[in-house]
Structure formats: structure tokens, C-alpha cells
Amino acid sequence: MTPQRFHPIGTPGQPWGEAERSLWRSRQRRQRSYASDVLEAVAHLHAHWDVQPYGELDYAPDFYPLVALHSADWSHDRPIALVTGGVHGYETSGVHGALRFAAEHGSAYEGRINVLVVPCVSPWGYEHVQRWNPAAVDPNRSFSAHGKALESIALMRLLAPMQGRFLVHIDLHETTDTDESEFRPALAARDGKPFEPEGVPDGFYLVGDSENPQPAFQQAVIAAVERVTHIAPADADGKMIGSPVVAHGVINYPVKSLGLCAGATDARYATTTEVYPDSPQATPEQCNAAQVAAVRAAIDYALAHG
């Protein structure tokens, strides 16, 4: 029997109140700089991109301007490809993969499709290497009319005038060992539920939309990434993180009903990447390269199949 794991904050079986959320927040420490790692990188991308501020987060004493990158040759006659990173700020390659794609491949799509890159949706989470925002709310469960994460609300406001024009959306994520050791136990404690281990898949995988799975699209992305890093196998029960594996490296979630970022638009082609940076078979360079390969394959497939 697996021993029950208790989180150090809260009382088992009781959801957190404001006291527990405040205690959790007081224990978070800034570990890296959004200004240096993201905003400075964005400032060097003016050759092929227009930088658009789309809001700001005031988490006193911290203040975060939110920025997106638009194709410099944006045309209202073209569909849109959306790339999002850092919805979970601690998932490093999602942020740096989005920035690398913008720096190295933005020009490849000029005149073909509008590209919108939002490299770091959750800057506080990026700096504090956290899944949640300071209110202990998960932005990647907040892309709905009832969502409470300010990060998600700001992004939805940015996307609202463009709804109906998105062809493809790829949301860049990681699954890390800390998911099992830190973040899932914290989630269980916050919600007053028992922690149930799910394991961490060893390798890259995708989360498609169970309401619009697009299996050929998902496999095109997997095939491209497989040239860069290994794809996670199913466990002994044919699952990954508790969900059935529906194809090589792919599981599906009902993304809209869960409030996931991948459901923030009605794009025909949508997927969430999951890189495994803690694998002994992967390096940070491979993780970033895998994200870039996934973005390119997703947009290329969408352009080829309409």
C-alpha cells in the first residue's frame, strides 16, 4: 500500500481558507526574473514581430506587464495560429520554447498565416517556479466564464476580438517530477481531498480535445517531436496520468469544460504539449527544441489541411 502523503499546510480533509492560502503564499520565493528572461527577449524580436501589451498584473509589491507578439505583416484576411507558453509558470520550456520559435521561425510564416505568440501567460508563476498564481488558483483551470485567475482573464480579453479566426492553437506545457512530489499534493490539500499518486510519464506527450480530437493532427506533431526527443509510453494499464492513451503519445481531455487554455478558442486544431524535463534521456536544450518542433509541426499541418 502506498503511504498517504500529507501536505504541510492545512488539515487533511478540510479545504484551505484564506489563512492557509496566505501561509502558502508567504512561503513562495522569487527564483528568476520575468523582466530579464522574457521581456528583454521580447524586446529583441521587433524584426518580424509587433509587440502588443495586453494587460498588467498587480501583485503588490510585484508588477507584471503582459505582452504578446503579433506577426509584423498581420492581415485580417488570414487565419490565426496561436502559441501560448507559461500558463503554468514553472514549466520552463513552454516559455523558452515559445520565445525560441518566435526568434528563429517567425519569418517562415510571413504572408501565409497570422501568428500570435503569448510567451508567458503567468509571470508570477514563472518567477516563483509555481503552478498557481498568488491566490493559489490554477490559471490552466480558469479559461471559462467563471474563471478566477487574472492571468487567464487577461488572455481571454486579448483573444476575444479574434474569436472565429483561429485555425490552430498549441499550448506549451511540461510534466515534471514536482507535479507528483509538490503540486498534486498541494492541490489535494487545498481542496481537502486525499492525494492519489498518478505517476509521471517518461517522455513527451500531447493532450488533445476529447470533443474535437483531430488524431491525424496530433500524430503529425508527435512524429515531428520524436525526431528531437523520446515519446512517453503508456503505463501497464494503457494510461498516462490516469487517462487512456488513445494513440502513440496522445491522451484526450474535455478541454473546454475543464477550463484549459487549449480550449480558449474554437481553433480547428488544438493541442497541449507535455515535455518531461526531468527525464535522464532529455536535456533543457532538447526540451526547448521539442516545443519548437511541436509548434512548427502544428502550424504546418494546419496550413496544409486548412
TrEMBL record:
InterPro entries tied to this protein: DUF2817 (IPR021259), Peptidase_M14 (IPR000834)
Record domain Peptidase M14: where: 26-306
CDD domains: M14_REP34-like
Domain of life: Bacteria
Family that this chain belongs to: Belongs to the peptidase M14 family.
Protein name: M14 family metallocarboxypeptidase
Organism: Pseudoxanthomonas kaohsiungensis
